[in-house]
Amino acid sequence: MRLVVKVGTSTLTHSTGKANFKFIDGLCRTLSDLKNMGNEVILVSSGAIARGMDKLAFEKKPTDIPTKQAAAAVGQCELMYTYDRFFSDYGQTVAQILITADDVSDDARRTNFHNTLIRLLELGIIPVINENDTIATKEISLGDNDSLAAIVAVSVGADMLVVLTDIDGLYTGNPRTDADAKLIPVVNKITPEMLVAAGGAGTFGTGGMSTKLQAAKMCMENGIDMVIASGSSPDVIYKTVNGEAVGTKFVGRDSGEKL
Fold first, then answer.
1. Are 238 and 36 in contact (CB under 8 A)?
2. How far is CA 62 from CA 20, 54, 202, 214, 235, in A?
3. pLDDT digit string (tens) for 76-105?
4. Angle at 32 between CA 155 and CA 36, to 5 degrees
5. Average confidence (pLDDT) over 172-194
6. CB neighbours (10 Å) of residue 58?
C-alpha cells in the first residue's frame, strides 16, 4: 500500500502547546513498522509554529505574519530534529519537503515535486512534508495541511490518506456542543449538509472539519480512500490499513478492489 498519514498540531501537542513526545514516538514506531511490512509511507505533519512557540517561550500564538514565519522557521528545525531522532530509533531515514501553493499550481514545479516524492519512496525514505510557513503568505499559502495531504495523496496516487485528529471522525453535528451528534462511519458522497455541519479551526491548528471534508472530496474524486480518525493512539493506523471500521471512511476506491 502507498499510504499518506496526516497529523495535525492538536494531535502532536498537549493542551499546553508543548510536544506530545509519547504520541510522536508511537507514530514513528507505527509508520516504521508499516514500512517494514512493505508499505510506502508519507507523513504530512503540522506543528512547526507550535514547536517554535515553545522554543521561543511564546505564551500566545503570534498574530502578525513575520512573527508567525519566525516561529515556523525555528519550529521546523525542532520538528524535524524530533522526527529524525525517533525515526532513526526504528531504523528509518527521513527527508523534509516544504512547499507552498506555487509548488503545486505551477506545472513544472508540480512535476518536480512529484518526481522527488517518487524517488524518495524508491530509495526507501519516509518523506515528511509540511507547508513552508516561513515564506508562505496569503497569496501563496495552501491554507491548511488537510488540503496539502490530499494534494500529496493525489500526486503520488496513494491508496489511502489517513487523517489523525482530535476528534473520532465526522459527526452529524458538533459532538463538543451537541449531545445527540452521532458518528458517521462511512461516507460515499459529501453533501452540502455535511459541509454546513462542519466545525471551525482548533486552538493551535489552522484546519477544522470543513478543510477535512474538502480534502476528502479531492481524494474521493481521484479514487483514493480517506479516513478521519482519532489520534489518541497511533495504533489506529494499523486498523485503517487492515480495513477495520475506525472513525469515518470516505470511499474513493471501488469496493471490489483489494488494497
1. no
2. 21, 12, 15, 27, 33
3. 999 999 999 999 999 999 999 998 878 888
4. 90
5. 85
6. 16
